[in-house]
Q: What sequence folds into this?
């Protein structure tokens, strides 16, 4: 469990098992990776073509409870949003992690690079406006 910018990140036991099995990461690294995937991963609205179709179909086929898939690297991270009643705290729970199929990995990496370029331009614009 990790809190970043007022958002609490939680990994289900199932999500941790999948990360350990598929990536070989320990609990602390899995926590960090889930936060990175959430903030830097491509959201389903950013996906296109066969990759988008695969992600949406996979979530349906596996009856995944995640409502907010992010693609980061070669993996699909399925998150659920919620809150702690009475506290106003936002909670993001990682439900599971799936592997992107080999024939779609190039597309996933291309989308990731495109998103990173947009982030860099956005942060450069913010830096320029702060200098003024």
A:
């Amino acid at each position: 469990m990790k809190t970043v910018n007022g958002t609490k990140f939680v990994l289900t036991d199932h999500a941790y098992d999948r990360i350990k099995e598929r990536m070989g990461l320990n609990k602390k690294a899995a926590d960090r990776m889930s936060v990175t995937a959430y903030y830097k991963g491509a959201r389903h609205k950013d996906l296109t073509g066969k990759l988008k179709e695969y992600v949406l179909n996979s979530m349906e086929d596996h009856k995944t409870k995640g409502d907010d898939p992010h693609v980061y690297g070669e993996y699909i991270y399925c998150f659920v949003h919620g809150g702690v009643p009475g506290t106003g705290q936002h909670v993001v729970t990682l439900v599971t992690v799936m592997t992107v199929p080999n024939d779609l990995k190039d597309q996933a990496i291309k989308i990731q690079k495109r998103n990173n370029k947009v982030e860099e331009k956005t942060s450069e614009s913010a830096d320029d406006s702060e200098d003024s």
